[in-house]
Amino acid sequence: METRRPLAIVTGASTGIGLELARQAAMRGYDLIIAANESLDLAYSLSDRVRYYWPHPEVARACGKLLENLHHRPPPLTLVSQYLPRQYAAIRSHELDPGVDALLRDGVAESIRPYLRACGA
To answer: 46, 69 in Cβ contact below 8 A?
Structure first.
């Protein structure tokens, strides 16, 4: 007679709470289906966390100062090429303006593309 073990589906299992949940479930005899991608887990964890900090006045002032500084002294293209390689390629091919506002808009659009694809948009 076949015995069935309980099944646990754990997302974000590469770090933090997801990893610990997977460990605990395995120790308790669960069969596991896990989804783990450290870079995606970190990116979504940070993006989920940042929304708690935006309303704080100190954070708003710091963001305002950062944008002001970036408008007065934009990042050099060598820095853009190192940390924003897709945007750098778009700048070089004249598909994206090298200005700070265009970089920010494109960066935000890039971050929400996975959500749009997941929603079928």
So the answer is: no
Residue type, 89: A
Number of domains in the chain: 2
Tell me, yes or no, whether 60 and 114 share the same domain: yes
* Whether pTM exceeds 0.70: no
The encoded tokens of residue 83 equal 């940390």
Could you tell me if 41 and 63 lie in one domain? no
- Provide mean pLDDT across the span 71-77: 91
Give per-residue pLDDT as tens, 5-53. 777 777 777 767 777 787 888 888 877 777 766 665 555 555 555 666 6
15 contacts 38 by C-beta, under 8 angstroms: yes
User: First vs last Cα of the chain: how many Å apart?
Assistant: 47
d(CA 109, CA 94): 18
- Let me know: does 70 contact 100? Beta carbons within 8 Å: yes
Domain hosting 12: range is: 1-53
